[in-house]
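Journal club side-thread
Mid-discussion, someone asked how the predicted structure for our own chain would compare to the paper's figures. Pasting it here so we can look after the session.
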Amino acid sequence: MTHTLQLLRIKLVTAVLIALFSFSYSQASELPPELQVKLDIYKTKLAEWAKDPVIIKAVMQANSRKLKMNNKTWNKLSATDAKVKPFLTSSAGKKLFAWEQDKTLGKLFLRDKTGNLVAGSKKPAIFNIAKRPAFAKAIRGKVWNSKKPKADPTTQLSSIQLSIPVVSNGKEIGVLHTSIIAN
């Protein structure tokens, strides 16, 4: 009888482990291979772009001044509003716009050390993203990306979010953030 109980226990433990493994595997977010390739390419590109002197200078300047803007006020502004234009037409804004023109990216934004917008390839839906993982992880020196495609808040396109820290003198000073279109 004890031999039968031991076999039953082994079968039960094995079944539980298989169920747990299957559940955790199904919850893991593996990207389709073609999207993973795009993500890997843009991790490298963003890391290079984050070293650009125009980008670093724009973040350093933004970090030295106080902006009087919040998400509520920002959301009321149109993309052509005089308060929005400087973010899009600055040297950094023009550079981001040019980099985004390959149409694989849905957007490209530069953020200061507190998550405020510094420059963008277009008007973002959110001015300050300090509490979002795209900012919170990257400002601590980690490359971050979402695990599965979903509708981007700015473009409404199915995308993977990716963010990279902007570093100067070994210190994270801001974040470069994009969305990689999934289709």
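Post-session note: Residues 31-181 form a domain with the Beta-Lactamase fold (CATH 3.30.450.20).
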